User: Fold these one by one.
Assistant:
Number 1:
Amino acid sequence: MPASNPHNSEMRDLQEMARQIRRDIIKMLMISQSGHSGGPLGLADIFSCLYFRILKYDPSNVTWPERDYFFLSAGHLAPVWYATLARAGFYPLSEMSTLRKINTRLQGHPAPWYTHGLPGIEIASGSLGQGMSIAVGAALGLRMDRKPNHVYVLHGDGELDEGQVWEGIMTAGHYSVDNLTAIVDRNFCQIDNRTDKVMELEPLADKWRAFRWNVIECDGNDISDFLVAVEEAKAIKGKPSVVIAKTFMGKGVSFMEDDYRWHGVPPGIEQGKQALSELEPTKFGDFVEFEWEKQVAEVVK
Amino acid sequence: MPASNPHNSEMRDLQEMARQIRRDIIKMLMISQSGHSGGPLGLADIFSCLYFRILKYDPSNVTWPERDYFFLSAGHLAPVWYATLARAGFYPLSEMSTLRKINTRLQGHPAPWYTHGLPGIEIASGSLGQGMSIAVGAALGLRMDRKPNHVYVLHGDGELDEGQVWEGIMTAGHYSVDNLTAIVDRNFCQIDNRTDKVMELEPLADKWRAFRWNVIECDGNDISDFLVAVEEAKAIKGKPSVVIAKTFMGKGVSFMEDDYRWHGVPPGIEQGKQALSELEPTKFGDFVEFEWEKQVAEVVK
Amino acid sequence: MTTIESKGEKATRQGFSDALLELGKENPDVVVLGGDVSGSVKVDAFAKAYPDRFFSVGVAEADMMGVAAGLSLVGKIPIASAYGEFAAGRPFDQIRQSLAYSEMPVKICASHCGITVGPDGATHQSLEDVALMRVLPRMTVICPCDYLETKRAVKSSISITKGPVYIRFFRDNTPMFTDESMSFEIGKANTLIDGTDVTIIAAGLQVWEAIQAAEVLAAERISARVINMHTIKPLDKKTILKAAQETRALVTAEDHQIHGGLGSAVAEYLAQEHPTPQEFVAVNDTFGESGKGAELMKKYGIAREDIVKAVKKVLRRKK
Amino acid sequence: MTTIESKGEKATRQGFSDALLELGKENPDVVVLGGDVSGSVKVDAFAKAYPDRFFSVGVAEADMMGVAAGLSLVGKIPIASAYGEFAAGRPFDQIRQSLAYSEMPVKICASHCGITVGPDGATHQSLEDVALMRVLPRMTVICPCDYLETKRAVKSSISITKGPVYIRFFRDNTPMFTDESMSFEIGKANTLIDGTDVTIIAAGLQVWEAIQAAEVLAAERISARVINMHTIKPLDKKTILKAAQETRALVTAEDHQIHGGLGSAVAEYLAQEHPTPQEFVAVNDTFGESGKGAELMKKYGIAREDIVKAVKKVLRRKK
Ligand SMILES: Cc1ncc(C[n+]2csc(CCOP(=O)(O)OP(=O)(O)O)c2C)c(N)n1
Ligand SMILES: Cc1ncc(C[n+]2csc(CCOP(=O)(O)OP(=O)(O)O)c2C)c(N)n1
Ligand SMILES: [Mg+2]
Ligand SMILES: [Mg+2]
């Protein structure tokens, strides 16, 4: 592992951070009482890996030319990103309590730092299906200039219903952009139902392969499995790679797990308390920040 | 072969009709001096098969409830359709001379009969990528009512760059609509260049398979090969089928064959004469209609 | 001044949902398309009642419009449902070619329109949809003002057999103030309050705001006519002209961009017929943001107070 | 009256092409995206001169806008090229979110706009693009009138570093009548002919028609001011207001739908500032059809004679 990530955390810390991120997601949503629980919780492990081990970035300099580019195409997953960006030092933890409130930088769907969004966010998302094309453009531009930065884009599985994603996938395959790694949050859930009920995606790996991509499948709730997958993806030359990461929607909260009905609703206060109790920090987790905890305390009581 | 097609022509007649259609395309374009040569010429064999052997229709009753539905998604291929519709009796041959002229029913891109287009045209096309979705909708509606009508949709290969096509393909796979047959005009050419230069589509058959389709590949300039392919396609139950028909752009005209630069330009008068001489009717071809030939004669001289 | 009262609150999208159930019962040809937002746009009740007549197309709005066109071609009456931005902006070219140019009588039912959709933020706040749909030939555009009117609009739209209809509704619960005794006819505006000094022409949620504004104004002895312009295309020109002639000052109010929407339609028409001072209550050429619907209405200048202010401004310009 | 002469004919899209070559030379960050219509939209010369800076994305306009956004993010200056309908309508939501809301300085260069594109027919006649682009916040919309102005517009657009620019041009060869001695500034209209009785505000190909109409009118002793409104957003309000105050009657002329375009922008503004009789020379809420550009201009009412007629009509309404 190159020491380029500012944390380069060890496995146990990544796990602990994932748990911390989950707690933050729950707290944010309890306060906002609006927003998406299921997808974000399922992605906490992946975001922990991305920001505490994989990505190259400098939270105090968001335009650092050597940074890696990360695009969250499925913008509704914002809560996991926001929690991670806070924990990674892009903005104060206490600001998490402003999620979805008027004048916030934590917009319901991600807005970039140079408009009214958070530092670390490169471009807007929320209207599904647009991130792949953007990632391909960034990868092509970087390659043109022989720059070593890597580009990551994360898609929901339901999001893959959008044709524009396949346009972008085709373009990436056509140009063999190997400085691009896509991650699919394969939780088999979308809003209306499970993915096979709403729109069957299988055989999903075959689809990407037929679009000239290298495909790696892994368990997106298993940190070591995911890290290996991403390492493999980056090592493959001459093709873009996709990591199809199987996750569970609502992971970590018993009553949300693998239930598509948690796609877009926040936990109520009692549900939130229950969730937090299931996500008790271990001894390794000592990421408390007082202002944020105070705000949470006001709602949780 | 069921005797449902009003012609149900034999092989030699189909070949002759294809040649006739090619002659009509050349003549139309010589007169209009605007429109697409390459794709339409490459498709003459397929259109001959469709309208003189495969499709169920009644040219004097375009809303006949038992008709098959044919959608030309790649609307720029209109000239081959127009020539075929004229030969199949949907409208007078002499009207072919109005192609792309003001007040014509032979619009530059197909318009339906109930607006300002030709009988036999069900819906507008021209903006690429929309026909698959329409075909899926029609197929679903017919299946709902347990109707036996079959639905056909024809796409250009370059057209498959459009993401909406993959949305429709995915929907068809999801619903296993087997009353739908897609035909891809695989001529490896689009406007700017050959398809692998503009946007690589290969492995194309794998793509469709990964989207839950049955794939049949054939030579789209070989009438018997194409007929077998379509028969096979219709026989497959439980999945939609696609016939990937390899054709040559500009087929039948030596100086146009397999050259993408003929995608969208008409032959000049001298070129047209040369083309017509290469497409001399055989003794089986006796489809002359005087008004049409008179109009042609005025231009050809 | 007639007082118009709210008889409780319900969401306009609920009116859509209830209309669908009735249509489903009355007409076996009615089919509904869902784009993975069935619960929010409230087509889930129809999907449950008539599972064979509900088609999920996944998150694929372009495909949805084409599938609807195909269903229409074989004799069905398709209702395509999505959030406003993804119902109008995302599949614009598909709507243009496969529905409008092809004259397909598909109903495009768009929920979660306007800035009032709130916390989801700018990407989900459809503020351009009326402008987009209105500029398409052969399109009908309706923006009902409350639960009942939405229900009636959706039900009446079935009678349009040539060309698509775009119907715009909203997420939040809002006052119910129309009743069956009022007429509802597509293309025919309803004058809710008579007035002589100024006319407020509103659509959608802004109709209720306009009524409230008129009450405030009445207390200040300003007599405001309030017109519910539920159909934005075709425009009820007669009613507008009469108002322009009689009150000689207008305010338009809508949860939409200032450019291209209802205000624009009124201004275009009057410039050709009877130029009249007009103020626009609308989102002023900016994207929205997260927040509560009511907060955003205030921040972005489309609340009742903004209508009151606009009325006063236009009265100063009146000749 | 000043006479404005045509110094030969060239297509506006050729001005785009030539501008690209110069930009390519001047600025190594300029990159061009092609959607399989490189020859028609005339980006082929750039592609040949700078193959490493040209990206073919296939027939995939939605993808094109996203790829452009990504290139922009890493410091490139992307020029996305397509036919009008497929540049504006097809990828509307992508332009909205990834370019306008995200403030990406991408240039969307749209050729083959308007009904004058001719024989291709309605599906290719982009008559709604100005309406669509104009309603987007943070967007600049330019519609140059001839070869040189197009070249200057494209070159000037590079200086806009925040938010996208939409530039609209046409297929056919048309008169060249602007020259380097005239100023060209985005957002600043050019008054080409001074006049006192009426003002014709035109954009794109209609500017030349307006000049011709003014000559016809001059012969009938009607003094028509002609304004070249090359930038439709931001609108040059000052010039419009002055014309409205001084001539008290306006005609707008554009190769676009009557709703939502230049005429609409002018009417919206004047309704708020200075209501003025206005006639619209535009395609009257209908789709086009195949035919020659000149034939269609006549049939659909956007030729110089229609401008003359509109002037006479608006003069009868003048107060
Ligand atoms: C273009 C567009 N259409 C519809 C939506 C509404 N929407 C938001 S999330 C979502 C489901 C996406 O499913 P998936 O990507 O699997 O996310 P998950 O449910 O797993 O979080 C939909 C349809 C949207 N945001 N954008
Ligand atoms: C949405 C859209 N984008 C672009 C075009 C312009 N266009 C017309 S045909 C064509 C190429 C299509 O290639 P293919 O389908 O292979 O047709 P062929 O060249 O083989 O006739 C393009 C880009 C269009 N008609 N519609
Ligand atoms: Mg999912
Ligand atoms: Mg081809």
Number 2:
Amino acid sequence: MTRKLQESGLTKAQLRVVYAQILRSRRLDERMLQLQRTGKTSFHTSGQGQEIGQAGMAMAFEPGKDYYLPYYRDMTAFMLFGITAKEILMDSFGRYDGPSGHGLQMPNHYAAKRVKAVSQSSTVASQYPVATGIAYGAKLENSDRVTLVTTGDGSTGEGEFHEALNFAGVAKLPVVFVIENNGYAISTPHNEEYAAKSLALRGQGYGIPGVDVDGLDFTATYLAFKEAVARARKGDGATLINLHVLRMQDHTSDDNQRIYRSKAELAEVKAADPLKTMTQQVLDEGIYTQAELDDLEKQLKKDINVATDQAEAAPLPDLSVLSQNIFAPVDKESGIYGNN
Amino acid sequence: MTRKLQESGLTKAQLRVVYAQILRSRRLDERMLQLQRTGKTSFHTSGQGQEIGQAGMAMAFEPGKDYYLPYYRDMTAFMLFGITAKEILMDSFGRYDGPSGHGLQMPNHYAAKRVKAVSQSSTVASQYPVATGIAYGAKLENSDRVTLVTTGDGSTGEGEFHEALNFAGVAKLPVVFVIENNGYAISTPHNEEYAAKSLALRGQGYGIPGVDVDGLDFTATYLAFKEAVARARKGDGATLINLHVLRMQDHTSDDNQRIYRSKAELAEVKAADPLKTMTQQVLDEGIYTQAELDDLEKQLKKDINVATDQAEAAPLPDLSVLSQNIFAPVDKESGIYGNN
Amino acid sequence: MATIDYLQALNQALDEELAQDDTLTVFGEDVGAPKGGVFNVTQGLAEKYGDLRVFNTPLSEAEIAGLAIGLGVSGHHAVAEFQFADYILPATNQIISEAARMRYRSQGDWSAPVVFRAPYGGGVGGGFYHSQSTEKVFVGQPGLRVVTPSTVRDAKGLLKSAIRCADPVLFFEHKRLYHSIKADIDPDEEILTPIDKAQVLRQGTDITVMSYGITLQYVLQAAEELAKSGIQTEVVDIRSLYPLDEATIVAAAKKTGKVLLVNEDNKEGGVLGEISAIISEQALFDLDAPIKRLAGPDSPAMPYAKNLEQAFLVQPDQVKQAMQELAEF
Amino acid sequence: MATIDYLQALNQALDEELAQDDTLTVFGEDVGAPKGGVFNVTQGLAEKYGDLRVFNTPLSEAEIAGLAIGLGVSGHHAVAEFQFADYILPATNQIISEAARMRYRSQGDWSAPVVFRAPYGGGVGGGFYHSQSTEKVFVGQPGLRVVTPSTVRDAKGLLKSAIRCADPVLFFEHKRLYHSIKADIDPDEEILTPIDKAQVLRQGTDITVMSYGITLQYVLQAAEELAKSGIQTEVVDIRSLYPLDEATIVAAAKKTGKVLLVNEDNKEGGVLGEISAIISEQALFDLDAPIKRLAGPDSPAMPYAKNLEQAFLVQPDQVKQAMQELAEF
Ligand SMILES: Cc1ncc(C[n+]2csc(CCOP(=O)(O)OP(=O)(O)O)c2C)c(N)n1
Ligand SMILES: Cc1ncc(C[n+]2csc(CCOP(=O)(O)OP(=O)(O)O)c2C)c(N)n1
Ligand SMILES: [Mg+2]
Ligand SMILES: [Mg+2]
């Protein structure tokens, strides 16, 4: 049973914001798929089905204080850290003002200096070791900031996943490792990715708690993350969270999941859409009325239209970028080293 | 309590051979340290303290049928697979007839085509993925051969360790993964290597059994490996064995463990020498009489002297080796590819 | 005869070798049924040869490499796919420490006759991690062959030869050649391309241009155009990036005395440097012009925005212009 | 003034930088107390600066690299040690995909000001995996500096500059220089060596020899000896292997018109090729002789048996002979 939103301990006002962001992110995701299909952008990776889990996750952190190393499906969490639809769209259009990649990175490589969301590569799991370095920094600074890092279930096969968790266990690092487990790595189903009953069991092998969390249940997710964050802030070390979510869309816009997922399975996934569940919850728990939701939908549509237009109108990177920021400039005065 | 040797189910004759090989390997190891100290060879890695565990391990396999990917402390197991002191010494002296490296590899890089002991690099844990390929081959051949691969406790930190176990779980490979856990990685104690209560717990994260085995207890070790091998032969997949042993000597002849291990600890390790325990056992259980043991010692000394002289007298690699066997010769007839 | 493209040629090569060598396995991320690889190079093979021989692996490139090596070591053959050439990097240790050294360090007791396939190259909107030319990371490792086909015929013949080769072969496939070049290939002809030879694709007397990958297509096209204005170009398909075919390279350089080297990778530190060094070591006094290199800029390959990506990529008109300038030198 | 060796110079550099930069951390396998590294480069530092700043890591080179990168990204500085240059290979992906690309892909929003130290080179009885020169694997990655000091002064000054550098620096230390070269260094002098410049160590007019690592010592010695018979050698310490200091290299080549390049690595595919290519591209008509390279053979580095190891290694007399032949060319 999905737990009540109110059991999360968040206020109604907070829950309104969360829900609105989730809905915004769904509508934005749909728009981005559409932009890709109509040739306005060249690529999109959808996060549909992972939004509720990501929202529960994001709400447990302090954006601006905590570091965040997202992966390519994390649009909802990224927005909850404080990023706008327009910013995200600028990255999709390859515009220089996009915070993630300034037109240099592919779409969906979420990052933003402003909220300590760190630049990511496409090489899966390679953010995990980097996250441990950032977490180690908190120890050096005697800070209670926490580092959040996410990846997919398939990506846990990588050696870098293992090496990071091992060191985090040894050094008791303030980091929350998240597996957004949607059961697939592109076309490869989970039983061809790993044979563990649950990836949460890996925690013990590193001396850190590993927990299974229902990422379709906002409250359950939020509370699990709250505990992991508290643990980390207190200096008790890392947690591994195996967050069970759904991948509702193709792997990316280059993929066609109907080749490897049956009609029945896809229908099931559609039926289990956690946004539907949560929409029912916000109505049932009196967080929004139906009329308010209708307004919200209208507002979001307008917002996203405006954001799309503005993002598209933003300038492409200048060609001079090709030779900028490769190395730091060598300091002319000393003549010897970068401006570290 | 150390279990009785007879409880292993091995015959007295077998146990006599095992013990003699263990003793031979200890005396050979001592000789190799001495050869290094006197400048006759330039390097040695001792396996003292790991012999009993290795013997229990080796006895569970069928040399010549099963593949074996040893690591650099595996001299005892390697000898039990059928390799002579002279062969090992040739490798130590860098002689071309050494089966492990033909003078090209450093000492202790145990390998021998004859018994399917596969050539190893020094890069720790990199034999683990290779072992899975060999194990996969057994499936292709519909063979019940098993692959044995060993490494140290510190080496379990490597990503390649993880990747190999993960795939072995998924593909249910007939492989036995061994961690010879001596509590140190050079100077680094186990609590700075990993935080798991036991490395055996990692098994669950890969969907394979993980077991802790007392590598100072021959019978316990042998029976645990027998079970793992039976599992693999039956097609039930891999096992991870965390074999608890002692490192009695310096990491290698380039190291000095008195810098990082206290006198008290080193005294404790010396007192716990499993060879002493086993010697008492063979006497108590009537496998050898004291007189026989005295003879055995004499015989071993003679053998090792002869082996040392013969190995030293063997030829160095010819300089032509520098340009041989880099690539397979290109087939002149077809003019197109190697002699695959 | 049937007209097939570069990708179909690769698929045919795998199909034929799977049929004739029953120790052969083909695997990698999403390589098995039903997807058959993200580019479809292995499409239909799992269905035909079973999912014990053609299969998906978890995301773990070091394991993919090691799995192949272990198969090779124990008498099997393996074609391992890295989904993108960018993702070979996590497997660097396996490839260099294990595969490349296996034969030599054991003096032939053991060997690793495996093929590592990797789609490389940019211009596909792939940003930094789906566009790189990573061949430079792996050349210069004795024991490891690095090759790349740049024609449809070689896509088939070189892959078949690589599979039959007794040594590990790192096999780069340019993504933008997959569907952009086609040729008539007799499906019944057994095509086996020499694995250690460069290839003169066009004879010429005025300038010599050596290249591989998509830029080789630009060179061929420019050579065709320049021929009309009387400039005759000797075009060499480098093909074997390591070890290089010194004899063919030096002969082609001497023939015209004017050499241009072209590839898509960054200029400094790429494989063109070695080719240039071989020429200036062995044919310096035959040269009538500096050995020029036309390559990508020395910035990380490759930015996403279309304008930057195009600015990064060596363009056909740059190739033609460089050739013209060299002819006029 | 105090006479110190190359290794002590490295230790001093770390000590001074740990003292002046309290964001700096130093770590790696066995780097902490009490061992202070398998070569003792970090000896005494954990005791002095605490084991939060100077510490052991588990065996996991990708993690070591990533840990450093994460520290750099979040405003700390890190010197990560790879126990041997051979063992950087498991960290290739972190170094190339993360460290080298961080600044560019984020247009300066993030950077990775970290140093990766690695003892390289053979002649120490280390066989294939404790002897390699792995620099060629990492050059040609825009965003990643690759340097190596070949003098005691540079061991100190270049490491200090690398630590202060705002970009990732891969720092190679030749193992056989650790104790074989000594110099008088004023402990109170703040030595900072330019991180992007080659260095002319000796002026000459007859031949130009460029090198780095142990072979540079042979070059200097031979130059000294040849000077007695009237051959004046211009000796360049390449020092910055990527990006190369083209200006210094080209000027030195033009000065004598006769160039010899020397290193310990295999010949084909090593960094000498790029140096040669730069020269033949920019100074071809100033050359009076082919650009020669003297390097290791194209076989896996490095066999264990003493006779083979010595046969692999470029020897002082080979260097001298090559220089003499070039002078007489
Ligand atoms: C090192 C590496 N190997 C392969 C890829 C190609 N690739 C991109 S996403 C992906 C699947 C990831 O699956 P999962 O971790 O489950 O995440 P999901 O996409 O399902 O969210 C693959 C194979 C990559 N990006 N990096
Ligand atoms: C990839 C790699 N990193 C570092 C080393 C250097 N090294 C050799 S042995 C060793 C410690 C291994 O410890 P452990 O795995 O516990 O095995 P033990 O020596 O204790 O048997 C290290 C760090 C190496 N050989 N390979
Ligand atoms: Mg997934
Ligand atoms: Mg150990």
